[in-house]
Design brief:
The structure is a homodimer. Chain A is mainly α. The first copy, chain A, contains ten helices and no strands. Chain B binds a DNA duplex (18 and 18 nucleotides) through helix 3.
DNA sequence: GTCTATAGAGTGATAGAC
DNA sequence: GTCTATCACTCTATAGAC
């Protein structure tokens, strides 16, 4: 057989970027074909379930990244202050300092959510729970409410940065949020 | 001529709901036909520019509502504390306590933003400016940064409520945001 | 009779599925 | 690449208010 042009992970990563740019509904197979260099035949060979399966795998890929880089460190770290700082470092890098959107948040906003309801719900629930665990370990009062507020603030900052076309907005919000969470720690 | 089945405003309102549900790219003319009860002929009679024109008019309609109900009161009210409380009342009603999304925020996230860049940018810029003006009048320090943070928090709360399928998240965030802004006033 | 809102068959292009 | 369904959109025709 011919060598694969792209590893499955590379394909999923590139498909994710198409979804980021156009949304799930707006991402056409021809755009995906162009971004991956894979013909329709190859795409349906890799993803027999079509766009829906691509969506599932993209979400699973994102979830795995956040689990390893964000949630697990938040839950397991001995020092909550260090863990929370590391979370913001990871998040700022992941979202390219506000130049990249959160695909899960974007999926949540329209009917796409209903196709991927469980993955979307779990992404945010686990993020909030992991952050709340770190905050609680650090002696914060109302850790869950504070974690919810922080995750919402990150999502809102991403919207605002893109709407205003100004990544600096994201940077300012992240700095403020770091300070708020640190202030809540005992 | 035959009587109009729908006023222009009613048509724009119903089209807006289709965009909210499916996103701009995902909103098909057949869905718009179904939601408005207007055939393609009627739709193209009212909106010769097609979906793009519908998008423009929906955004203009939203902008007019926020200008009258939110921005102007924030700028003009004598009592900033009252004005800010009124803003939250209006916002919570508009977003149906978290059951309805912000269409402008949703447009901002994907390539739709580029079609309507000016309208999207101005919606948020004017909201932030109007809120900052009220905060400044109330003696808050760093009113612009605080306003930015509040608007981001509202957008993030809408995403989170929908992602978790729990409108209570939005209610909690709005309550917390009210308290934060009040605390910043002299 | 004129004008405008209606309806919807029909256009080519392109979608996603296979 | 081929398939069928659906896309955004055009065009012709009609109904009805003036």
């Amino acid at each position: 057989m011919p060598a694969a042009l792209l590893s499955r992970e590379d394909a999923v990563t590139r498909i994710a970027e198409v979804f980021r740019e156009h949304g799930f509904a707006g991402a056409s197979l021809s755009a995906i074909t162009e971004a991956t260099g894979l013909g329709k035949g190859s795409l349906y060979n890799h993803f027999p379930g079509g766009k829906d399966q691509m969506g599932e795998e993209v979400l699973a890929h994102i979830d795995a990244w956040f689990e390893a880089q964000v949630y697990a460190p938040l839950r397991d770290s001995a020092d909550p202050r260090v863990a929370i700082a590391a979370m913001f470092d990871a998040v700022e890098a992941y979202f390219r300092s506000g130049r990249r959107i959160c695909l899960v948040g974007a999926f949540a906003l329209d009917a796409t959510r209903d196709r991927f309801a469980a993955a979307v719900q779990e992404y945010f629930a686990r993020w909030i729970d992991a952050l709340a665990a770190a905050l609680e370990k650090g002696g914060a009062t109302e850790p869950h409410a504070l974690a919810e507020s922080a995750v919402a603030g990150i999502q809102g900052a991403l919207i605002l940065s893109r709407a205003l076309n100004d990544p600096a907005v994201f940077g300012r919000q992240m700095q403020e949020m770091r300070a708020r969470l640190n202030a809540a720690l005992a």
